[in-house]
C-alpha cells in the first residue's frame, strides 16, 4: 500500500485531509486486517500532522495581514518577514 502512495510532505492540505478521511472510514468499518490497520493508522497520524502543520502555516500568514484604519486590509507582510 505505502509503495504507491505519494510522500506525505508533497500533499496539499486538501489531499492530505481527503486521504485521512478515507483512512478513518476504513478503520471505522473494521474490515481491514490488523497488520494493515496498524500501517494505515500510522499513515493517518502522519497525515494528521501534515494537516496541522499546513493549518498553522496558513494561520501565521493570515495573522500577517495588516488592517487599515477603515478595517480593510492595508497590505500583507511576507510570512518570513522579508
Main sheet properties: 2 strands, antiparallel
> How many strand units?
2
**Helicity range of the residues?**
55-70%
Query: How many individual helices?
Result: 2
Shape: elongated
Radius of gyration: 18 Å
Q: How would you state the average pLDDT, rounded?
A: 87
* Largest sheet strand order: 1-2
Uncertain runs are: none
The succession of helices and strands, N to C, reads: HHEE
Structural class by secondary-structure content: mainly alpha
How much strand? 5-15%
Oligomer: single chain
**End-to-end distance:** 42 Å
What does this 3D model show about the protein?
By secondary structure, the chain is mainly α. Helix content is 57%, strand content 9%. The model has no long low-confidence stretch (mean pLDDT 87). Strand 1 (65-67) and strand 2 form a beta hairpin. It is elongated and about 60 Å long. It has two helices and two strands, in the order ααββ. It has a two-stranded antiparallel sheet. The chain starts with 12 loop residues before the first helix and ends in a 6-residue tail after the last strand.
